[in-house]
Amino acid sequence: MSEQITPSPTFATTHWSVVLSAGRDSSGARESLELLCQTYWYPLYAYIRRRGQDAHAAQDLTQEFFTRFLESRALRGLDRERGRFRAFLLAAMNHFLASEWNRAQSLKRGDGGIGRCSAVKSPRP
């Protein structure tokens, strides 16, 4: 039976064995990725909500963040000696949100391009 994770807006203590396993091409990588996504989805969603996004936009942004984050294979280069996983994840999220905001502003100005998140609000300082 798989363990059910209760959603919490706070970040859980990082289990580096799971993070490192998720970044490898191994038999347990898929399970580790699934666990990381389950563990960090809600705290990242709550972080976006606290920055002023409505529930629907926050869900879309969180899903898109995870899609791009996992496609980038950013977990491969992580090292527990270089800092906290939570800080790394929040920095990646902030970069993603800024990129989405810039894309939305570009579309509003008519600078061309195709964007999915025209509802992204300006990031709060």
CATH class: Mainly Alpha
So what's the overall shape? globular
CATH architecture verdict: Orthogonal Bundle
The stretches of 5 or more residues where confidence is low (pLDDT under 50) are none
Number of strands: 0
Give the N-to-C terminal Cα separation: 43 Å
- CA-atom Rg in angstroms: 16 Å
The secondary-structure element order is HHHH
**Helical segment tally?**
4
Which fold does the CATH topology refer to?
Rna Polymerase Sigma Factor, Chain: A
Q: How would you state the average pLDDT, rounded?
A: 81
Total domain modules: 1
Helix content: 55-70%
Structural class: mainly alpha
In percent terms, what proportion of residues is strand? under 5%
Major sheet attributes: none
Describe, in short, the structure shown.
58% of the residues lie in helices and 0% in strands. It is mainly α and 125 residues long.
Polypeptide structure, described:
This protein has 125 residues and is mostly helical. It has 4 helices and no strands. Helix 1 (16-22) crosses helix 2 and helix 2 (29-50) runs antiparallel to helix 3 (55-72). The chain starts with 15 loop residues before the first helix and ends in a 16-residue tail after the last helix. The model has no long low-confidence stretch (mean pLDDT 81).
